[in-house]
Amino acid sequence: MGQKTNPVGFRLAVHRNWQSRWYANKKDFAKLLAEDQLIREKLMEKLKQASVPRIFIERASNRVRVKIYTARPGIVIGRKGQEIDKIKDDLAKLTGKEILLDITEVKKPETDAQLVAESVALQLERRIAFRRAMKKAVEIAMNLGVEGIRIQCSGRLGGSDIARREWQRKGRVPLHTMREQIDYGFSEAQTVYGKIGVKCWICKKEAEATN
To answer: Where do the domains of the chain lie, and which CATH numbers do they carry?
Structure first.
């Protein structure tokens, strides 16, 4: 049986960073980890339309710094900063701690693996042909100068009775080479036939790499 590992976790010790950066003793660790998960779930649910690929969380005593990466910062900030204040208040009520929010814009959403996977999943939900959706995403990413991209869809593709897996690749995506900057994203499309999983791997050049 094939042994698969997450490309982000595989590279953590080399040149990727953790998405939660804090230290806790054994007694508090589980509670803080669950709190991180809750913060992420709430934000992802609230900012569904804002194209958020990842959220970084840092802690210092009773203060939590949440860094939101988004392709649409206007939606997160809202008119005159109303939305961001509301998010801050909601998270403060949820955790009972002081919340500091940072918004970072994703300059090229077409080369972010998580956003590409979500975009393909959204197209599948709108009943766009899966091959066409994958091909378009691959071409756009390659035109924007990535080293390589691979997209894989799994499930009842095109409404067929038997679930199958199909993928498209262009360029080089060396998953076993730890020094390569591989960005990975996963999303699910809720279609009338059931769930279709979408995975995306993007090999970036050194300068474009994200932590």
So the answer is: 7-105 (3.30.300.20), 109-206 (3.30.1140.32)
